[in-house]
Amino acid sequence: MKNDQRKRKAGRKTGRSAITRCLLLLLLLAAAVLPAFGAADVPVFADASGSPAYVTDQQGLLTQEEADQLAEACGEFAKKYDCNIFFVSAGDPQIGENHTEEDDRTYLENFNEQNFGAGSDSIGLLVDMDLRYYYIDIMGDQALQAFTDQKQAKLQEAVEEELAQGNYAQAPFTFVDQADYWYGRNPKSGSYVMWTLISIGVAVLIMFFWYRSAAAKHKEQHVSAEAAAYVRPDSWQRNQSQRRRRSFLINTEEGRQIWQTRPINV
Amino acid sequence: MANQTYKCLNCGGELNWDPASQKLKCPYCGSEFDLSVFEQKEEKSQQDIRNKTYEKGASAAENGQTRSTDDTEVHPEDLRVYKCSVCGAEVITDKTTVATSCAFCGNPVILEENLDTQFHPDAIIPFRISREEIKGLYTQYLKSRPFTPRDFYTDAHIQKIKGVYVPFWLYDMPMEGHLHGTGERVSSYSDSNYIYTKHDVFEIEREGTLQIQSLPVDASSKMPDEAVDSIEPFDYKDFAPFKMAYMPGFFAERYDEDASFCSGRALKRAGQTTVEMLRSTVTGYSTVTVTGSSTGVQGGEESMHSRYVLMPVYLLYTKYKGKDYLFSMNGQTGKAVGNVPIDGKKAALFWLIRFPVILAAALLINFLIFA
User: Fold this and answer.
1) ipTM more than 0.90?
2) Nearest CA-CA distance, residue A239 and chain B, Å
């Protein structure tokens, strides 16, 4: 009886482990296949291609040409600052029916981590046309340091202005431009160091000219070279003549930089 | 002891010319006298000069003297010795000095010898700025020069300012000038294929005449040209016939560069102005190139006329760290111009105080843009 029970238990155990194995296998399959399905929804710069997902326009806000241009601008930004920048447009099909603004934020944060790696420097813009909502996510120590609250507010302001005016295609370009502008003003950036040096130079120049103008007052005497103050009023009389010596024409063919000089007999 | 003095009719003190009241004033009792009071004395002096009965200065070098008593910095061979008519002390001064003061009694000494016929000025502009005003004007002048050494503000230094009647030649000259150049006018038009740019080049000739009136050129070799040129102009309305009574209390020089010697500078200045006036008539061209010009006196240099006058200048010579500096002020209008040394400590302080502030402001602006 006891043995039967053991067998039964063993049989159940074997059945359970088979189910567990199957489930694990399914999970593995899903893990392998699902991202491939997800990637199929991303029309531009899919992860599968190996290039960073700078532009993921799932709501068709950009033409292919615009998407290419934006991706190029993002690539330049990433190269310049060693910080990824990306644009995502997503809505109900991607985030889910009846999704909320909170879902949008989570979606973008997950997208950021999945595509660029958790903790890496990156900045992304999500535009959700279904909720008429946008969200900017910044990740990574350096990026967070560069984009202070003030700069984030400026960035949001610029993007919001474009979206409010219906310039949906222009908004991501403005986002990249503004991010470039403000990241360039990062106290740890090369341009900050350059501008600091320029500021020091300007301060030295201001002081130099200030000093020069103050020192110039110490030497004012000069020999007079003219006598205009001593011309008797109404004594100035003049005769004048002019004779045309030569004239010539120059013909310029616009756009071709061809010059021809033609003398005119006078 | 034939050098001229003016004595107070009340107390017998030596009178000085007072720029404020434009009268002779006694520094002891404060009495003031109009010049007309001394007309007879003035006439007597003129008579002395015409008759050459004035005291003639002996060569200081022959008397074994090598230094002047009035700080005149000249060659020892040019020093002359006179006697003070008040205290009888020796007054040793340059041969070109007209008026000075006795180093012993401080009284004014006017040397008629240097007002002899050929050195007799045609006119004089009397001092209008008084010694009392000078201190304020000079201090005000120094305050606008931020690196002036402290020593320059001391009373002892300011006391060294000398009022000097400087000899000038005033030239009247009819100038003529000729200017030659080229001017270019550019116009442009276009059709569907070409843009046509037309260049018209013109030969330009200009001739003109003008009258230069009373152009001053200082006639003393001891006077730096820039020091007196810089304080022009003088107001010629104040010209008065020359009288020795304007001199007590001031220094005066006679000319040692005659009218023909100084005419070169006058011609140069007048020529420059003639060319500038001719050039100002060349208008309406895109570009103008002056290829030549010439100026001269109409009818030759014989047509130039000159007058010998004395005009008032306050001067202060200073030696600072081995270099000479000269401050000059128009004794009539108060226009002050000078060369003042730069005190290294004050200049350093200027940088030390201002530079950190400017630098901090620049860095702050930079930081605020980036933050």
Assistant:
1) no
2) 5
